[in-house]
Give the backbone structure.
Amino acid sequence: MNQTADVVVVGAGVIGSSIALELARDGLSVAVVDKAGAPGQGSTSASSAVIRFNYSTWDGIATAWEAKHCWEKWSDHLGGVDDAGMARFHRVGKAFLDVDIAPMDKVLVMFDRAGIPYEVWDADELARRIPGVDAGRFFPPKRIDDPTFWEDTDRRLGALWTPDAGFVDDPALAAVNLANAAKRHGAVFTFGKRVTDVLGTGAAAGVRLEDGTEISAPVVVNAAGPWSGAFNQLAGVGEGWTVTTRPMRQEVHHLPAPAGFNGDGIGPCIADLDLGIYMRGTPGNGLLVGGTEPECDVLDWVEDPDAINPNPTQAVYEAQATRAARRLPDLGVPGKSVGIAGVYDVTDDWTPIYDRTEREGFFVAIGTSGNQFKNAPVVGKIMRQVIKDETTLVGEHTGLEVDLSAFSRLRERNADSTGTVMG
Ligand SMILES: Cc1cc2nc3c(=O)[nH]c(=O)nc-3n(C[C@H](O)[C@H](O)[C@H](O)COP(=O)(O)OP(=O)(O)OC[C@H]3O[C@@H](n4cnc5c(N)ncnc54)[C@H](O)[C@@H]3O)c2cc1C
């Protein structure tokens, strides 16, 4: 049966579900379509869901700080408690180890401007505050078969500590929470159907699903995660953009944490561009380890996100776990990997694209580059502003102004980007 709506959102990940919520809250009739069977089954389900504030741009930092307040007051953000259960933010703090490719002094100026609390730790303080950490400076990251990998160093590093950082314990449930909140405002979700066409000859006029159903709408939003590039092609957009997107496969591994790391609760998050990894404690005394695309590694670009090996591989596991053991020498590395593989939708400068396009009525919330789960609650509001042709967003919690041109498809590439998932 054909439908009509004010807006159709393609993708019910954490981004599409948040957009649906904010647009429905604003009084629009919203249709959301996802080829998966439930919200948050794409990239979102694989997310490490780390909530941090270090980005290379002011607008990235201001967005992340505003979003933290949404996670902290999740039921207020949703406008109620979800019967499906509630995703939960754990405030465990984050140590961003000091590396030249993410200059701390630049970040501190922006943290001061935003009012984000922090502590600057020297190497002794880092070793004191995170039990079992080796505060050696090993940069640049090396392959584990490099003969110098285990070489001692007398160089040491400190860290930028943000006590308000942490993680969300169930990223897919967070998407479910947003989708259910959107439904309470009247949004209609269709699952298990692929969108195969964008209607209209000039301006976008809706979408066609694989079973032939048509949803007419003057606004179509591409929130298709790693499938966004394929969907842009279908819509015929991308001409003249200065920033492009490309899917990249990533692995995240779960290990038993070394003694003391999680203390009596859950240990901190650590961004370690010095060794090419990030880590965080997990409930159940575990340690999660992901990669930060060090130059010595071959990046796993993919053509088709549906065709990836969904299982972690022994080689990537050994590389990431061994790097983690370099930083946390008491970490035991079990022979067999436990973890997941997911796909990032990466832009040239690891900054997302939240924008209109050259095709009237066709909008994009894409290129989330492995770092936008945390910002999802605010991305819904950003897209509401973009669709209304507004150029800024003022954070409800922080009062901080975000200049939306920072996320334009036509921006000058962010030259300050670390060139990694850290943005
Ligand atoms: C391994 C990993 C670790 C990460 N860690 C972090 C982290 O610690 N912190 C952080 O902030 N971010 C992190 N991220 C990034 C974050 O998870 C993503 O930016 C975010 O989940 C993207 O959400 P999305 O809704 O855009 O995409 P998705 O969740 O992929 O949703 C897109 C949806 O679109 C649907 N779709 C696509 N094409 C079509 C079509 N043609 N028709 C119908 N449906 C379609 C898909 O089925 C999918 O459900 C990580 C990502 C990965 C993969």
Notes: DSSP finds ten helices and 24 strands in the chain. The radius of gyration is 21 Å.
